[in-house]
Amino acid sequence: MSISFNAGRPAGDIVASWWEGLQQDNGGRAQLRRCKSPEEVMLEPAFHRLLNRMRGLLESEDSLSAEESYRRLAAVAGLLSHVKTRNDKSLAARMAESQGSRPRFSSLRFRRLMKESFDDLYPAMIRVIRQLDKTASLSDLANSVFYWGDKVRKDWALAYFPNVVE
Predict the structure, then answer these.
(1) Who contacts 156 (Cβ-Cβ below 8 Å, separation ≥6)?
(2) What burial class does residue 9 get, using C-beta atoms within 10 Å of its C-beta: 0-12 exposed, 13-18 middle, 19+ buried?
(3) Whole-angstrom Cα distance, residue 139 to residue 18?
(4) How far apart are CA 160 and CA 67, in angstroms?
(5) Average pLDDT over residues 56-69
(6) In a designed cystine with 9, which of 4, 84, 143, 157 is the match (CB 3.0 to 4.6 A)?
(7) CA gap 63, 1 in Å, rounded
(8) What is the pLDDT confidence band of residue 166, given thresholds at 50, 70 and 90?
(9) How many H-runs (helices) and E-runs (strands) does the chain carry?
């Protein structure tokens, strides 16, 4: 079974509720924002509040080991701590948006991001969130990071390139 972080789905509702609570927990949010990797996120109490709510769903995830599921959820939690405002638009489409006469992300920068392995994705995604004014779709961010791989890269390319004007 595959976990979906979309609104109206159990994992999506849990993550959205956790994120809303995190907006009121300045200390927990700050601790998560200081983390430099998913492994550091796993040491924070705010992450464990999310993990405890998600554990049953993660254990039913058959495409990843439990350890890898926890690590990927930690990456999601850490990255969501950098998001201040929700948006419904996909990250890739937002990267293609015009900022003056150029897109927010050049196609060269976008292609570099697409080459990142999951192990190197965390710091790159922090920079993406910052460049998008700390605004993101919670579900798109969570789904994309949790399942980072060839399918997500293809989906992002299909959302980015048709919308970019360079």
Answers:
(1) 90, 91, 92, 114, 144
(2) middle
(3) 13
(4) 32
(5) 86
(6) 4
(7) 8
(8) low
(9) 10, 4
CB 60 within 8 A of CB 43: no
Taking the C-alpha atoms of residue 90 and residue 166, their distance in angstroms, rounded to an integer, is 20
Q: Across residues 111-117, what is the average pLDDT?
A: 96
The one-letter amino acid at 114: M
Q: Mapping DSSP to helix (H, G, I), strand (E, B) and coil, where does residue 116 land?
A: coil
Question: Which long-range contacts link 51-54 to residues 24+ away (Cβ below 8 Å)?
Answer: 53/14, 53/18, 54/11, 54/14, 54/15
Phi, psi angles (nearest 5°) of residue 100: 75, -125
Of 142, 121, 112, give the one whose Cα is nearest residue 38.
121
- The answer to whether the CB of 26 falls within 8 A of the CB of 85 is no
pLDDT, tens digit, 9 for 90 and up, residues 23-49: 999 999 999 999 999 999 999 999 999
Burial class (CB in 10 A: 0-12, 13-18, 19+), 55: middle
* pLDDT score for 165: 64
* pLDDT for the residue 100: 78
DSSP state of 99: E
Which residue type occupies 67?
E
